[in-house]
Design a protein that fits this description.
By secondary structure, this protein is an alpha+beta fold. About 20% of the residues lie in helices and about 35% in strands. The chain has 3 domains: about 100 residues, no CATH class; about 90 residues; about 260 residues, Rossmann fold (3-Layer(aba) Sandwich). The chain contains 10 helices and 26 strands.
């Protein structure tokens, strides 16, 4: 798929690396010698390897048996890089996943490794320090509940200083400075774009078709009546190892929450909220698990009295647009309105359009009859039925989308019009896969999307 190279100029550890991506989730990494010869790092081709000073870190997507030990998918391993290249295979597991946790990321400072762990989609930061007797583990800075936290070294070659971001549904993003071992200092915070004083955040768990518990966040007015009458917007993605974290959105706050709406964010399978297993559970022929998860969250919102189907809407973009397309065709009775942004919808043609061929590791190859047998079951364009009842839907796309071709949304809209269905369509002529080229265009599209949903779900 691609090749690249990098140079590490850390004093005393200068190295050149070459990378080769052979598939979406498989790659090879090589150390380039003084004579130009390439030596491959013999780690699993679906693992992510990184080198810092004397250390080699390996993050696993699948179990790996090495030197008599088997490490699980989602583990983070550490070993000495030069020893590894000399043939030694001695590792220490810095992190191994638990049923409710996964590795969200890691970053170096000069003497420490900052490890970010997700526990039921909430961040917990740790400081790991290598020493003569192995790695020492200590808790790092705590964070408010229902926020997203990340930290990274400022200059790992020279200092243990770091920058930290804290962001949440009701908390504008803040930037903090600190040094490992001390207390961080807030440097800057974005302004608040809506009044959050009357709102609260909670986390709930729906039960999917196969019994899996699926977490989701809910932002709602304090003291909200659970009578099913609340206009509610459910957002999701469910693919490509992309996790859905709490985040501050002035647009959602002003256009939805400030008007009395409820916002829910679903952590469905296909993402990486619980590590590789959460993603791999919805790959290819298992894709329907992502859609079953999202439907389960919709049903849970209704069962808890938050929103009856007529008051519940859903929105998603790109792979999330495909998710919404499948809510339309497979679960139409659960929703009162839908917004599908820059979506995939024609899964028979997707691999022949723009970047689509690179996603066959996620969905499968529709040109193979055995793959098409299951792909067609989640291809919204092919699953529309004449005479069926569907909720109103808005498709948005961009003429210049260079990732997901606008033909997906165009064809779906045309077919729905031919069938006499309630469909709306907006195509911006600029903007690429983001759908907009500047803030003015983005504001217009957001206004269209939220106005459509409010009109359909709030009845005014």
């Amino acid at each position: 798929m691609s090749v690249s190279a990098s140079h590490d100029d850390t004093e005393g550890f200068e190295r050149d690396f070459v990378y080769r991506s052979v598939a979406f989730y498989k790659s090879e990494q090589f150390l380039r010698g003084p004579d130009g010869a390439l030596r491959k790092l013999e780690v699993p081709d679906d693992a992510a390897a990184s080198v810092y000073r004397e250390w080699l870190l390996v993050e696993l997507r699948s179990p790996w048996t090495v030197a008599g030990s088997t490490y699980p998918a989602g583990a983070l391993l550490a070993g000495k890089f030069d020893d590894f290249m000399a043939g030694e295979r001695r590792f220490e597991a810095l992190y191994e996943p638990a049923p409710n946790s996964s590795l969200a990321g890691y970053n170096w400072t000069r003497n420490h490794l900052l490890v970010n762990v997700l526990e039921d989609v909430q961040n917990r930061l740790l400081v790991l320090t290598p020493g003569k007797d192995g790695w020492k583990r200590e808790p790092f800075q705590g964070a408010p509940p229902f926020t997203t936290v990340s930290a990274a070294g400022i200059d790992p070659e020279h200092t243990d200083e770091y920058m930290m971001d804290i962001d949440g549904f009701l908390t504008p993003a803040g930037l903090y400075y600190g040094r490992v071992g001390g207390q961080p200092e807030k440097l800057k915070q974005q302004p608040a774009y809506f009044d959050a004083s009357g709102l609260e955040v909670g986390q709930h768990f729906a039960v999917s078709k196969d019994g899996t518990k699926v977490p989701y966040f809910q932002v709602s007015p304090k003291g909200m009546k659970l009578d099913g009458s609340n206009p509610t917007l459910l957002y999701g993605y469910g693919g490509f190892e992309v996790s859905m974290y709490p985040y501050y959105s002035g647009v959602t706050g002003r256009a939805w929450l400030s008007r009395g709406g409820v916002y829910a964010l679903a952590n469905i399978r296909g993402g990486s909220e619980y590590g590789p297993r959460w993603h791999q559970a919805a790959l290819k022929a298992k894709r329907h698990r992502a859609y079953e998860d999202f439907a389960a969250v919709a049903e849970d919102l209704a069962a808890r009295g938050v929103a009856a189907p007529a008051r519940l809407g859903a929105m998603g973009g790109s792979n999330g647009g495909l998710l919404i397309g499948n809510m339309l065709t497979l679960y139409p009775g659960l929703f009162g309105a839908l917004v599908s942004q820059v979506p995939l919808l024609d899964m028979k043609s997707y691999s022949h359009l723009l970047a689509g061929a690179s996603w066959m590791a996620e969905y499968g190859d529709p040109d193979k009859p055995e793959d098409w047998e299951y792909i067609k079951t989640f291809s919204p364009y092919h699953n529309l039925e004449k005479g069926a009842a569907y909720p109103p839907v808005l498709f948005t796309t961009s003429t210049r989308d260079d990732r997901v071709h606008p033909a997906h949304a165009r064809k779906m809209t045309a077919k729905m019009k031919d069938l006499g269905l309630d469909v709306r369509y907006y195509e911006n002529i600029e903007g690429g896969h983001g759908g907009a080229a500047n803030n003015e265009q983005r504001a217009l599209m957001s206004a269209l999307e939220y106005s459509f949903l409010w009109q359909k779900l709030a009845g005014k």
